[in-house]
């Protein structure tokens, strides 16, 4: 049919996303993107715009696929913030262990290459990290800890998540990654327990 795209946009985005995920923005050449998607350079530009625009579309695609899973895990245990964080890490570790996708995390990979991104894309990556922090912060809300403690814990959980992605790309085993996640969950539990017990009297 005249004017109708002759390819599956989501499938092309998935393939381009894998290239950015595996190689990082800087090393994701147009030739590599074209080879992965099956589109010539002209077709890539016609469908998605330039490389920066395609990268943003891939970030959005990654978020739509994995962000929903994180949100579901974090929301699945109302009233039990520690279990919510455990479920969050379970989803992350499941993604890392999935042999059908590249190692690590597209967001972590992109954050590490922020100096190579233009301002709009760098801002988008920071925004996605902040979105993740906000999701974790909301899951921690069902506790008696004060706001600064919850803010710090949410940032800590996101930092551990990013560290898991980096470690997985460096070849850390599933057992090693799960050990890190368990220790992080223990840290969250201990911090919330101390907060619930209130300040210790001095003197």
TrEMBL record:
The residue ranges marked as DNA-binding region are 29-48
Q: Which InterPro entries match?
A: DNA-bd_HTH_TetR-type_CS, Homeodomain-like_sf, HTH_TetR, Tet_transcr_reg_TetR-rel_C_sf, TetR_C
Entries under PANTHER family matching the protein:
HTH-TYPE TRANSCRIPTIONAL REGULATOR YJDC (PTHR47506:SF1), TRANSCRIPTIONAL REGULATORY PROTEIN (PTHR47506)
Q: Where is the HTH tetR-type domain?
A: 6-66
Protein name according to UniProt: TetR/AcrR family transcriptional regulator
Which terms are listed as keywords in the entry? DNA-binding, Transcription, Transcription regulation
Matching Pfam families: TetR_C_13, TetR_N
- Tell me, what is one Gene Ontology molecular-function annotation carried by this entry? DNA binding
Q: Does the keyword Nuclease apply?
A: no
| PROSITE patterns assigned | HTH_TETR_1, HTH_TETR_2
What is the source species? Streptomyces griseicoloratus
What Gene3D superfamilies does this protein map onto?
A: Homeodomain-like, Tetracycline Repressor, domain 2
